[in-house]
DNA sequence: GCCAAACTAGCACGATCGTGCTAGTTTGGT
DNA sequence: ACCAAACTAGCACGATCGTGCTAGTTTGGC
């Protein structure tokens, strides 16, 4: 048969072009033409891989979730619950370009969900995964909590980390980011410190 | 001269049409045509009031911020710092249709900011106003904090309330909202309880 | 060498977009 | 009564959009 069928590499390359367009011009500028131009390919080539625009956006969203998950899974575990928790939480807020891009894409997708219903299950899946991770962190920090309080604290941590992330993303004073880490470290200490409460 | 120049009422009517379109179809569906149709007027009439699309969106954003500010200012003060703080924070999360719509519009504007730079100062202004409100609440709950800790706690409260709001907005299980209020009440108690820390 | 399948490139169509522009329609002051 | 200003309504233009479609171009198995 013809050339190798390594569509995967091409798909990822196009998805990254989608992210760049979102990052630079906003989600409203994502079209098959702009993405193809950003990726340096013709529209026809793009549409050979992604026949419709929806499939392009959908794959880009899924890949973003997958990348974030992989990055989280790759963070080293030292065994110290507090240190590990802070290390993981640091990966959830936009401190580096890639995590920042991920969050910007995520936000854009949330805002575009009414127009593209296919994105809703992806957003919900990411939401639940992050909540589950927060629950895991809380459980490792304060293992003696009963189930209802664990759920409450997990939701609280989830809200705090997403709020911090959102503010870091749009803060007019982009210079200082220490407060964000400090804020998360305080929460970790609070959870670990008051074991039985 | 001709008819009365009560452009204001018309402008607000059109801005509310913008909000409905954002709410139903997403920010991407906001065009002079869709908004005019939603408001039940002709495109020409809309463009007599808002010559360009940017002015339409800009006014809608500003009006949303103003409405939210008014709603916050209208919350009754009982003198009990904790009770008042919870009452104000309740107005910042999407528990009722109007505050929910405000948040959806706000989120859409954040996502569209790269495409419409005129929205950036509006978003920053709203950000700073909300941060200032949080600082005010923290100061009334824990008046003995030094300045740096007050700033830290204000940012933390700001992040928490925005995170809770974001999650309430997109939570797959829209049924229970009690955890959100409980979460904010816990934070208020924590701030008021550990006065000097 | 060769050919079918994978891939690239691009044209064309209808729809929608923002906006400049002009023509009707109301309406309040005189 | 009347007219100028405020307002309503809509046409037209170029740009961009998603997508159906058809040609070229590569390329691996025979």
TrEMBL record, chains A, B:
Residues 8-68 form the HTH tetR-type domain. One of its GO terms (molecular function) is transcription cis-regulatory region binding. InterPro entries: BetI_C (IPR039538), Homeodomain-like_sf (IPR009057), HTH-type_TetR-like_transc_reg (IPR050109), HTH_TetR (IPR001647), Tet_transcr_reg_TetR-rel_C_sf (IPR036271). Keywords: DNA-binding, Repressor, Transcription, Transcription regulation. Pfam families: TetR_C_6, TetR_N. Residues 31-50 bind DNA. It comes from the Bacteria. This is Putative transcriptional regulator.
């Amino acid at each position: 048969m013809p050339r190798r069928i390594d569509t995967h590499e091409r798909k990822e390359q196009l998805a990254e072009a989608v992210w760049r367009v979102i990052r630079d011009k906003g989600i409203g500028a994502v079209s098959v033409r702009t993405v193809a131009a950003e990726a340096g390919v013709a529209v026809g080539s793009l549409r050979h891989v992604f026949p419709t625009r929806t499939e392009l956006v959908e794959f880009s969203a899924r890949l973003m979730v997958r990348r974030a998950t992989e990055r989280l899974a790759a963070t080293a575990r030292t065994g110290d619950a507090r240190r590990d928790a802070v290390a993981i939480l640091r990966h959830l807020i936009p401190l580096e370009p890639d995590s920042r891009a991920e969050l910007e894409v995520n936000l854009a997708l949330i805002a575009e969900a009414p127009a593209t219903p296919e994105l809703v299950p992806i957003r919900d899946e990411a939401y639940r995964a992050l909540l589950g991770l927060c629950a895991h962190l809380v459980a490792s920090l304060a293992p003696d909590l009963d189930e209802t309080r664990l759920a409450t604290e997990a939701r609280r941590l989830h809200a705090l980390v997403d709020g911090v992330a959102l503010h870091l993303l749009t803060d007019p004073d982009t210079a200082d980011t220490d407060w964000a880490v400090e804020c998360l470290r305080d929460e970790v200490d609070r959870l670990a410190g008051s074991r039985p409460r």
